[in-house]
Amino acid sequence: MKIAVSATGNTLDSDLDARFGRAACFILVDPDNLSFEVVENTQNLNAAQGAGIQAAKTVADQGVDAVLTGNCGPKAYAVLEQAKIPVITGLSGSVKEAVEQYKKGGLSAAAGPNVNGHWM
Amino acid sequence: MIISVASGKGGTGKTTVATSLALAIGNSAQLMDCDVEAPNAHLFLKPVLEPEESVFMPVPVVDEDKCTMCGLCAEICQFNAIITIADTVMTFPELCHGCGGCQAVCPAGAIGEGKRTIGIIEQGRCNDLEFVHGRLRIGEAMAPPLIRQIRSRIKPEKTAIIDAPPGTSCPVIAAVQNTDFVVLVTEPTPFGLNDLQLAVETIKILEIPCGVIINRSDIGDDRVADYAAAENLPVLMEIPYERGIAEAYSRGEPLVESFPQWRQRFATLYEKICQLATGREQ
């Protein structure tokens, strides 16, 4: 199993990045043994528009089973939904803490985007 | 001839200048209000308008049966408006700039052309003066294609006055590029000076002759005038800060109609612009 966490840095102790589309990077974690790899998101950080769309495609192409983040807008959500990847929003703290919360269960997937897009 | 009236800073008097210049030129002029996010020239000219026309942008429509999921469309799109995901193609029409790149590169011929409304155009007349303006759909980000549509209605035999949006971004470029002269309206304040400098740098890149009008010229300080002199920019007109002018503005009256002495000044302004734009009198 592999879950993607939006992160401000490249370790498990890095803070979870509340922004999905413009997160510094994504940490792809195996919740069973906490092994992880880092996927950079630099290109989207500086994108004029559509950062959420590309970020969603980036993690979907990595074959993740879930996304843990702070906020997810309507376009990123639509792409993740199309790829059938559940997204859990409203998380904060370190990447490790988010993964542990996920492992404990009790987190439910968002039924829709939890923030507005930057374009109407 | 096309004269654009622009400014780095908003609220300096573009519409005051554009409407009065057009009225002073008279029946050979066309006023094109290209400030599509907040058109206001009609408040002063009160034109009789024909029914509005919708303006569309081309957007991709994908035939999923023909699509081979090769991903070339997503690769060429610089605006993330089309992506391939989980055996399907998703499009985001509101992000599309309508370039047609996805359609051109699709090897399967799976991408056709749809359309979405970006705004409306209205045209009409204010006595002898022809008037055109556009209004961007609320929430729409793509002003330049609407501005280009307004400009496509310029008649070559007329003198077109373009009331440009404020600033120095894409909509301004769309409004002023390939015009014969740019009038930059500013005010003698630190913001007026700063934004004038940005506008002048922009117009230099576009290589269009330009001049400055200083509105509310008796407030602030001399730094705008000093800058214009240092840059060799002609100061074409100064409009003082007068209560009467402000009152007429607040009633929606063009400057040249409330104060007939300004009609001659704007006619002289037009002559100056013609000389500077073409190097000869018209």
In words, what does this structure look like?
The complex is a heterodimer of chains A (120) and B (282). The N and C termini of chain A lie far apart (35 Å). A five-stranded mixed β-sheet of chain A has the order 3-2-1-4-5. With 120 residues, chain A is an alpha/beta fold. In chain A, helix 2 (51-61) packs parallel to helix 3 (74-82). Chain A has helices at residues 42-45, 51-61, 74-82, 95-104, and strands at residues 3-7, 25-29, 36-40, 66-68, 87-88. Chain A has a single domain (3-104), classed as Dinitrogenase iron-molybdenum cofactor biosynthesis domain (Nucleotidyltransferase, domain 5), CATH 3.30.420.130. Chain A has four helices and five strands. Chain A is globular. With 282 residues, chain B is an alpha/beta fold. Chain B has two domains: 2-54 and 121-278, P-loop containing nucleotide triphosphate hydrolases (Rossmann fold, 3-Layer(aba) Sandwich); 64-109, Alpha-Beta Plaits, CATH 3.30.70.20. Helices cover 35% and strands 27% of the residues of chain B. Chain B is built from eleven helices and twelve strands. In chain B, strand 11, helix 8 and strand 12 (235-239) form a beta-alpha-beta unit. Chain B is elongated. The N and C termini of chain B lie close together (11 Å). The mean pLDDT of chain B is 95. The chains are: A alpha/beta (120), B alpha/beta (282). The A-B interface holds A 47-51, 53-54, 56-57, 60, 75, 78-79, 82-84, 119-120 and B 74, 79-81, 83, 85-86, 88, 90, 92, 94-95, 138-139, 141.
